[in-house]
Amino acid sequence: MRIALVSEWLDPWRGGAETSTLQFLHSLMDSGAEVHVFTRSRPSPMPGLVVHTISGAAMSRSRRSITFAQRVEGRLVGNSFDVVHAISPCRHADVYQPRGGTVAESIQRNIALRRTAIGRSLKHYANYVNFKQHVMLNLERRILLDPNGPIVVALSDYVVRQLETHYDLPAQRIRKIFNGVDVHAVARAVDDSHRSALRHEFHVADSDCMALMVAHNFRLKGVHCWLEALARILARGVRNIRSVVVGKGDAPRWHRLAQRLGVNDHVAFVGPSDRVYSFYGAADCLVHPTFYDPCSRVVMEAMVAGLPCVTSRWDGAAELITDGVNGYRLDDPSDVDALADRVMRLRIKNEARRMGDAARGIAASVSMTRHTKELLDLYDQLSPLAKRRCDPRN
User: Which H or E element spans position 50?
Assistant: First the structure.
């Protein structure tokens, strides 16, 4: 099968969606498919992968995304691919898989994380004058509102709800194929020797509860909520808790917040790290009070590593969690008392271990191998119909 994969970016440093796309690409190559990728990135060479580097040259970043989409569409017309799978908006796609969820939902959730009515109003106005956001929203609408548009692959029930709520997309246009991660890479990296070394490096005693956060967008993922919850825990006289925050962010700003809340001696900001899997093995729980995540790869990986996770209902991965069995779901990520309460329960080592063992049981259902197989099955169903894309009248 000849597959065209359209993804504007394939750089893992950009975030979880790009990392997931790369992992999927590797898994797709392992299946034996002939894969052509259309991208603005320059991915590392892979045997058998054909890379079409498409320039998005234009006067602004927003125009570059439009230019990229137009140039890819021009290259696809009349081509002989069995299936065109688009991660980025593409009018000639047979399968559209918005790994970042819908732009419409992302806009709403970024407004929701503002705590005051004035803050939400200001963010709403900023969105109104944000040209790039208008461009991305229009590209999304062009794909989803087209009655002859592609099948849309949703990574979670949460993304299914987004498609139904914002676009009234009919059920026959939606396929839920739950997100996947490289479960074998996670399992290989979780090692007791790494656990001891990392805990020693960050001054975490064996008797301490180490709460891990992994995020790139600190504000959207609720780092401020966790720091406030940590302050509530310390105010109860608890001292045997430490937190490590992995990911890129404005470190000085977050150090100042930690100091103002009085938690700076109990939290370490380590920046981006290629040791994330090892951090899973060193921690006792994962804290992820996100305001928006279509299906958090971090939560899935942490559960595979045997960590109970605390996340919010605004995370598609929350459907993996049975409350109190393998983790906890929060209705509101800004409810810092509820967050503090859940992490306090996970300070009990036996409880955390029991829930971590249950969390590890989801591994088979979240493997990238399973994710890729379900997509290949969808390709097989669609490929006889894909010739419609080759008609320049479409």
Answer: strand 50-53
Retrieve residue 36's tokens.
């052509």
Task: Please give the average pLDDT of every successive group of 10 residues along the chain, which has 394 residues.
Answer: 93 86 93 94 85 78 83 87 94 94 96 89 81 88 95 98 98 97 91 86 95 96 98 96 91 93 96 93 97 97 97 98 97 97 95 96 96 96 59 40
Which domains are delineated in the chain? 2-180+367-390 (3.40.50.2000), 183-365 (3.40.50.2000)
Side chain identity, residue 63:
R
**H/E run at residue 270:** strand 267-271
CB under 8 Å to 170, separation ≥6 — which residues?
A: none
d(CA 218, CA 336): 16
**CB under 8 A, 24+ apart: contacts of 167-174:** 167/102, 167/104, 167/141, 169/144, 173/149
Which tokens belong to 163?
Answer: 């498609």
Q: What is the pTM of this model?
A: 0.93
C-alpha 56 chain-centroid distance? 24
Contact 36, 4 (CB under 8 A): yes
**Close Cβ partners of 144 (under 8 Å, ≥ 6 residues apart):** 96, 102, 152, 163, 167, 169
β-pairing verdict for 285-288 and 267-271: unpaired
d(CA 378, CA 383): 9
Rounded Cα–Cα distance for residues 175 and 180 (Å): 15
Question: Which uninterrupted H or E stretch holds 371?
Answer: helix 368-382
Whether residue 78 contacts residue 390, with contact meaning beta carbons closer than 8 Å, is answered with yes
- Residues in Cβ contact with 138 at an 8 Å cutoff, skipping those fewer than 6 apart: none
Cβ atoms within 10 Å, residue 252: 9
Q: Tokens at residue 326, please?
A: 């393998």
**334 Cβ contact partners less than 8 Å away, ≥ 6 residues apart:** 113, 115, 222, 225, 289
Report yes or no: 294 and 314 within 8 Å, Cβ to Cβ: no
* Cα–Cα distance measured from residue 155 to residue 317, given in angstroms and rounded to the nearest whole number: 9
DSSP 181: B
